[in-house]
Specification:
Blueprint (H helix, E strand, L loop, with lengths): L2 H13 L4 E2 L2 H6 L16 E2 L4 H14 L18
Length: 83
């Protein structure tokens, strides 16, 4: 099993199945960028933690599997870059 699938299962135990996905249409919605200097990069997993404890556990799991993580907020700059 791949490291992403293993991480997915562990993170799912932390946040619950309603707050994690690897569905393409969700990944596409979280990966758009209007700045032509940067290509769209799709995440492997989208997670929506609710507490700082969940964030901490997700970071530990990502570190365990050496998976990069990137924050996503609802705010954008004028160029559409995520803040």
């Amino acid at each position: 099993m791949s490291k992403v699938k293993n991480a997915y299962k562990e993170i799912e135990k932390v946040v619950g199945s309603d707050f994690i996905t690897d569905k393409d249409y969700i990944k596409a919605a979280h990966s758009r960028n209007v700045d032509p200097a940067f290509l769209d990069r799709w995440a492997d997993i989208i997670v929506k933690p609710e507490t700082s404890f969940e964030v901490s556990e997700i970071v530990k799991i990502a570190n365990k599997y050496k998976i990069r993580i990137s924050g996503y907020w609802a705010y954008f700059t004028r160029l559409g870059k995520k803040i």
